[in-house]
Every structure is written in structure tokens, then in C-alpha cells.
Amino acid sequence: MPFGILSVTSELHPLIKTGGLADVAGALPIALAQHGMDVRSLMPAYQQLLRTIPKLKTVHSYKALFGGPARVLAATANGLELFLLDSPSLFGTRDGGPYGDLAGHDWADNWRRFAALSAVAADIAAGAIRGWQADLIHAHDWQAAMTAPYVRYGRAPNIPVVLTIHNLAFQGRFDANIFPDLGLPASAFSVEGVEYYGGVGFLKAGIQHADAVTTVSPTYAEEICTPAFGMGLDGLLRGRGDALQGIVNGIDTAEWDPATDPLISAHFSARSLGRRAANRRALEKRFGLKRGKGPIFAIISRLTWQKGIDLAIETVDHIVAIGGRLIVLGSGDSAFEGALLAAAARHRNAVGVVTGYDEQLAHLMQAGSDAILIPSRYEPCGLTQLYGQRYGTIPIAARTGGLADTIVDANEAALGSGSATGILFPSSSGESLKSAISRAVRLYSEPGTWQAIRRQGMRSEFGWGRSSARYAALYRSLIDRSHAG
Ligand code: ADP
Questions:
Q1: Predicted pLDDT at 388
Q2: Is 103 part of any domain?
Q3: Alpha carbon distances (Å) from 294 to 86, 275, 284, 319
């Protein structure tokens, strides 16, 4: 019998996505099926989703769930088995995204929305859905983290919970006055419970109560145990000791395959790199660049401080001065958007910027650029460096978190042994980014070297094979322990 695994997530590609969490939540369940895991994904039934998913079946209902009627709907979409939490008052039509309005303000009732998602996960653990039983729950990020206390204080306290932290910066911190409405026992409002600096901390509560905590790369797992990266939670994380581990994210290698990708202009492989040229020309056209020989540097990112976008903005003139071009796709901080658009206006033929979210353009940029810039101040895993390597776009990245774990810097030794896949620079400062870009332009001027780095990245194994096996091993050990206990 396969194990029943309930994956709890607030986003899931291709249904709804704001970042890497969605990619993982969409791809990991499919990879886990090969390890004897029957994964069901519980997520909110955002109104726009309901219109796109056929054959919804009600498998559980609530007269009142956090203030309104709700149902759990079962469905199959994109090869995934889903449980959708349909609650019009919590996830009904709103002008904005899954977490906030169009101006970027969080929805005021986020605590209620994601406490409800987590409480429903605990109900499913306790057998709410006839014909399907979870042996373990895998909760993702603060939006699902309250699953751990709800399970622990609920009717099935022995079901193991794994919490994965995709980004420690988003913690779900709320005022203490929400506590009475969470439906937890009074004793849960304590330092060993959900209390956090006088309020309620969803991620904190998850870290405290989960049987195992994972994060999305080994280096980030070490970093978050230090005050510099721990964002106030490093003490608690250190205290979890061996229960914390890093498992690097994989990518969906079927969807991100330059030999078959329907979203790019021309297909290619490591053996037919010449065919990339058509993608490069498509990019020059799309971004209004003059056709040229200089390397095209790309940024595909949320435009935020974490991603070091301010550092990239500082280096635009340098990139152009040394013969490079820059193309940017992103949305986020309006000051960064403005500065990038101003840079594009200043360097009309060499810098192009598209603001907003565009999945197709993201694929084309990976297929036609020469390098992708990722000057992150911290990076739990990062996916764009993996897509870049798979598509022959060489990552130039800060040596932090998952970037450090998935890129082999083109130093002399790595170039000599043929293992280099990118360029890492020591710390996230404008100066070090600038010198990394200069290093890239030098390597680019030696076509044999550049192509060798490109090919090495394209040959690297970034699928879910190894990492899904690690998750499966973790699940098995926790389920065995819970049965023994
Ligand atoms: P994070 O999850 O911190 O935003 P990741 O690198 O882990 O960063 O994942 C980002 C994902 O979102 C990648 O799949 C990337 O291609 C995609 N992405 C980011 N910004 C955009 C955008 N503006 N348009 C299309 N895709 C984007």
C-alpha cells in the first residue's frame, strides 16, 4: 500500500504561482509517486481556479469554518490529485493576488484564511475524508505551518508533520488578539506554542511543532541557524538540531526542456547550441535591442531587496560600457521598476525591461540569453539558476544558500577539470557583482571556454530524482516512528 501524504500549499504551478514554492508544490508530488507515495495536495480554491478545473466533487463540508460555510472539493488536474478548500468568504473573488491587493498590501484576514487551510489539513489527518487517509502531512511555508499545532492539539496528534521553509522572510506574524479565534487550547499561547514576541507566529508555531523541518538547500539550512540569516528564528532553529535539514529543490525537467519547450522560438540541445541563435534574435526583437554580438545578461525575478535588484541597477552602466546588453523581466518594488525603466530609456538599444509576470517570456529569456544575473542577498534555493543551466544561460550569482549549492564557480581548477557551470561572487555588493560581470565578459570572449561551461551546466542533473528520494526517506522514517510510538 502506498503511503498517504497530504501536501498543504497556498500555491501550485500551473494553477497559481507567485514564486518557487508553486514550482515545488506542483512537481514534487509527481516525483514522489515513484517512491510509493500517494500525494494529495490541499490548497485554497481561489475563485479563478474553480472556473478552470473540471469535475469537482464535494468530499467534506463545513457549516461554519472560520466564519462561513466551506467545502473540500476533490479534483484531478495536471496529473495531480487535489483537495480544494472552497470558502467564498476566505478565498472568493478579490481584486489582487493570493496574498494581497493590487497595491501590494496583504489581505487583512490572511491569518484567518491560512489558519483555516491548516485547520482543514488537520481535519483531513483526523479522517474527515472518507476513503482516503493521510499517513503524514507535508506543510509548506507559513501559510500551511499552523497545520503542525492544529494536528498536535487536535484529534490525530500522532500523524507526523513535515514543515518546509521556502523563505524564512515570510513568517506570518499577527497580533495576539487573533489567538482566541484560532480555536486552539489556551495553553497553546506560550513560548513552547504559537506565541511569538507577544503575538502569534504561524511559521514559528510550525517550526516548534513539526516533527521535521526542512528547507530547500543544505547551505540555507546552515545559514538560517545564524543570527545574520535567522530573521529572529535562528535560536529556535538551532534548538531543533537534527530535525532540521536542507534538501535542494529539483526542477520539472519535462516542462523545462530546451529540446521540446513549446514556449521558445527554436529548440536546441547541448549538441546543437547553434540553434539558440533564433531565440536570441527573438529576444532582441522583443526587448527592442539592436542586433549585436555582446553577451545578453538577463534578470527574471521578483524586484525586491532580497534579490539584490538595487545592486543590479548599480551595474547597468558598467554592463553597457563593457559591451554587454541587459534584459529584465520582473515585478515588485515600484522604485526598482522605475529605476530599471529609466535605465532602459538611457540605453535604448542595449537595455530592455518588461514589467509584470510572463511565463512564456521567462522561458524565452532562458533559451536566448547568455547569462542570468542573480545577485541575491540570501536565496533559500533559487530556481532561475537551475533553469538557466538547463538552457545554456550561465548563472552569475551571489555565493549564498541554494545558489552556492547548485553552481560550480568557473575558477581555474573547475575550468581545468571541466566542472564549471557558472560564476559565483563572494558577497552581495555592487562592486563584487561588477567584477563578476567583467569576469563573465572575459570568459565570453573565449568562445571555447564559454561553450564548455554552457554544456557542463546543460549536462547537470537537476531533476527531482535525488531530492524526491530524500523526502521519501524522511517520510518513511517519520511514519515508521509514529507507528512504533
Ligand atoms: P522566488 O521563489 O524567491 O521568487 P525562485 O528563483 O525560487 O525565486 O523562483 C522564481 C520562479 O518564478 C521561477 O520559476 C521564475 O522563472 C519565476 N519568475 C519570477 N519572476 C517572474 C516574472 N516576472 N515572470 C515570469 N516568471 C517569473
A1: 98
A2: yes
A3: 51, 18, 12, 10
Task: Determine the Cα–Cα distance for residues 103 and 97; give it in Å rounded to an integer.
Answer: 10
pLDDT digit string (tens) for 439-467? Answer: 999 999 999 999 999 999 999 999 999 99
| Distance (Å, whole) CA 158 – CA 126 | 10
Concatenate the DSSP letters of all residues of 55-71 into one string: --EEEEEEEEETTEEEE
Domain around 214: 3-250+465-484
- Asked if residue 451 and residue 475 are part of one domain, the reply reads no
DSSP conformation class of 169: T
Neighbours of 247 (CB within 10 A): 22
Atom of ligand 1 nearest to the CA of 167: 3
Pair (316, 375) in one structural domain:
yes
- Which strands form 244-246's sheet, in the order they lie side by side? 57-65, 68-77, 80-86, 37-44, 3-8, 136-140, 161-165, 212-215, 244-246
What is the residue with the minimal CA distance to atom 12 of ligand 1?
Answer: 19
Ligand 1: residues with CB < 6 A are: 19-20, 23, 167, 300-302, 329-331, 357-359, 362, 381-384
Predicted local confidence at residue 20, as pLDDT: 87
Cα–Cα nearest to 447, from 455, 436, 458: 455
323 and 226 part of one domain: no
Q: 57 is written with which cell numbers? A: 466533487
Looking at the CA of residue 402, tell me the nearest atom of ligand 1: 7
Q: What CATH number should be reported for the domain holding residue 367? A: 3.40.50.2000
Supply the mean pLDDT for the chain. Answer: 96
Atom of ligand 1 nearest to the CA of 354: 23
Start-to-end CA span in the chain (Å):
20
- Provide the domain count of the chain: 2
pTM score > 0.90 for this model? Answer: yes
Cβ atoms of residues 380 and 216 within 8 Å: yes
